[in-house]
Amino acid sequence: MKDVLVVGAGPNGLVAALELARSGLEVEVLEAAPAPGGGLASGEFVRPGFVHDRCASVMPLAVLSPAFARLEAGLRRQGFAWAAAPRAAAHLGTGPPVFLDRSLEATAAALAGDAGRWRRLFEPLVHAGPALFEDLLGPLPLRPRRPLGCAWMAWKGLRSFHGLARSFRGRPARELLAGLAAHAFLPLERAPSASFALVLGLSAHLRDWPFARGGSGRLARALAALLEERDVTIRCGVRLRRPSELPPARAVVFDLTAWNFARFAEGALPEAWLRRLRALPPGPGVFQVHWALDGPVPWRDPRVGEASTVHFGTLEEIAAAEAACWRGRMPERPFLLLTQPTAADPGRAPAGGAAVSAYAHVPLGWAGDATALLEARIEEQAPGFRERILARRPAGPRDLEARNPNLRGGSLTGGAPFLRHLFARPVSWRRPWDTPRPDWFLASASTPPGGGIHGMAGWHAARRVRAFLGLRA
Ligand SMILES: Cc1cc2nc3c(=O)[nH]c(=O)nc-3n(C[C@H](O)[C@H](O)[C@H](O)COP(=O)(O)OP(=O)(O)OC[C@H]3O[C@@H](n4cnc5c(N)ncnc54)[C@H](O)[C@@H]3O)c2cc1C
After folding, report:
1. 2-43+61-80+214-280+409-468 is classed in which CATH architecture?
2. Nearest in space to 312 (alpha carbons), one of 326, 331, 328, 295
3. What CATH code is assigned to 83-210+283-403?
4. Does residue 444 line the site of ligand 1, with CB under 6 A?
5. What pTM was estimated for this model as a whole?
6. Distance (Å, rounded) from C-alpha 154 to C-alpha 141?
7. 196-245 pLDDT, tens digit each
């Protein structure tokens, strides 16, 4: 009998398995897909020679995550490396492009009338430094390591985007912040959408918004290799549908989102608790398209080609689009996010070519095809884009869910981060990784700190398992 079973080999499951194996426990990982990685997956599935990321691509939280910091030397030993583009993000809204750069000063200076406001907003956070992420990527920080940084984040961030944007005068700063806040998948008038703008802006100013060199699957493979070094087996192609299918173990960690776990645990856990899991709102979904191009995207402004990520939309468009998605209506001009890994890692395409992906926020479970809409939006900003397309591969909400049952209706957040679900996620704020069964734990993006590649949910769940098994942290 193993000490611990981990169900699901996403970044959180893999980090949990590694943390527990490092404590000397015998661990086995069971994964439904043919390969480990979950949201970390890449390959030549669009056209031979072009490496695209299937899900996660730009990973600002991973490079600031304490969980990955502990693994950094091991990952490097496995040949893993980050690749950063010259700029973190570009925003294409009302006027000329606006850029989010590593340099706070350069970003602020380009915001003309709002330069001082941008500096004043981010300086206290930048001053708190990367250690602030130990507080931000944890449970509710009752004894924060960086109290001043946390207080500033709470004051400025625990409000709606509109509340934050009011202190800025010009469109460039407001639209740059709106693109960052839209990562919350919340209506912009709802708190704490501002906190996403702050965390993502800060992450750019502290580190980069990097890609995994060679594709995000490389990070999954490096994590799997570290597990192999510790004799942890990962059994792929094993989808667990009910508790009776679980091999015996002293404890089980589930890298499953709230709804996925509720379906699995039906009949095995109190119905009242499962109802609360199911009540976590998934939020909107995404419609994604990958393209293989015979040259870089022909942006009107070539500086946009230097950005890892490009956000599209005026303030009004983003606000209307996010609200429409929540009402179940497909917006005319959805919020659009494009990533261009070849800006950082040219080896992902044959010489001169480019691998590009984009997704639009769409209503949960939307069944339409947004490929033409996405291409038209890009064409507006990059005339001649369509002529560069060698191959494309769309994936709607249903395709995403079919590949990974965690992605209900194409939702990639593990649950919308409304104020009450920011820390009390999915149910309790005190021990969010615990379940009513003392030997079962949750580790997915449905627990704090939520969606994204950071491995911290797995890290916290592993801590709870160690406490349950009576081991020292
Ligand atoms: C299209 C898309 C783009 C994204 N872009 C980014 C990005 O650029 N940057 C970023 O930081 N984040 C991004 N994300 C979000 C990120 O991928 C997720 O937040 C992250 O992967 C969550 O990690 P996880 O370990 O909680 O779960 P997952 O990555 O979902 O992994 C869970 C694993 O469990 C397996 N599983 C599920 N059910 C079972 C079962 N019953 N039995 C066995 N195995 C099971 C799944 O197959 C999967 O491998 C994106 C997500 C998507 C879908």
Report:
1. 3-Layer(bba) Sandwich (3.50)
2. 331
3. 3.90.660
4. yes
5. 0.98
6. 11
7. 999 999 999 999 999 999 999 999 999 999 999 999 999 999 999 999 99
Gap between the Cα atoms of 148 and 125, Å rounded = 9
Q: DSSP class of residue 387? A: G
Q: Which of 18, 361, 404, 433 gets mutated to test ligand 1 (max ligand atoms within 8 A of its CB)?
A: 404
Cβ(447) to ligand 1 under 6 A? no
Cis peptide preceding 192, ω within 30 of 0:
yes
Q: Is the peptide bond before 426 cis (omega within 30 degrees of 0)?
A: yes
From ligand 1's centre to the CA of 425, what distance in Å?
17
Instruction: Identify whether the C-beta of residue 199 lies closer than 8 Å to the C-beta of residue 157.
Output: yes
Mean pLDDT, the chain, as a whole number? 97
Distance CA 403, CA 392 (A): 18
Closest CA to 262 of 410, 405, 409: 405
Nearest CA to ligand 1 atom 1: 55
Of 221, 243, 251, the closest CA to residue 25 belongs to: 251
